[in-house]
Amino acid sequence: xxxxxxxxxxxxxxxxxxxxxxxxxxxxxxxxxxxxxxxxxxxxxxxxxxxxxxxxxxxxxxxxxxxxxxxxxxxxxxxxxxxxxxxxxxxxxxxxxxxxxxxxxxxxxxxxxxxxxxxxxxxxxxxxxxxxxxxxxxxxxxxxxxxxxxxxxxxxxxxxxxxxxxxxxxxxxxxxxxxxxxxxxxxxxxxxxxxxxxxxxxxxxxxxxxxxxxxxxxxxxxxxxxxxxxxxxxxxxxxxxxxxxxxxxxxxxxxxxxxxxxxxxxxxx
Length: 269
Hints:
36% of the residues lie in helices and 20% in strands. With 269 residues, it is an alpha/beta fold.
């Protein structure tokens, strides 16, 4: 296999372009880095649209598990495999210490109505959440507490950015993300029996009022401004997390984890 050493190579330019949202949207593609996540994808290969795998042999051989995955990908016949020079691999990614392997995937598309029909679990709604690290943490918490579907209101940061994806620790593979073009699409949730619950400081209701037999769509808001009035007005109820008066609010990633955990605990423990 020829080792790609040029920054002008089309595959190199393609991967590097995926660091920017406009090119991810244009090409409907993103990439995930790391030995663990690539192994996980290969284990469920038929369920995921893989465009190609790129690796650097010299980096892989210095990474834990690198030799094993190198042997694995060298035996693959039905997936495009590219070998990058070490400097080229470091050039295309924005990771400080890459493990030497990445996989380019198609961004999956999900239909809102179909998901609402088939999903029996609670769902999560993000209202203009901006911090990529927070989004990654939230996706991991969704995995932990049985939330498969996340709806993102326009203005929410891109979950497929490399920083957010690293924070999900592979959790994006188990999450259906749908970006809403129109806030009024939230009305469909009520048609399918979901109760829209918004976190707010302007209520005396706590998590204890939630019914384990109902389906909820939990709304979490922007780091600085919280949930918008427009979304709050569509809600069926407001709730807040009881806490000490020593602090006014929680980080949105932490708050989401608490809300999802409480409902999961009540249903499963």
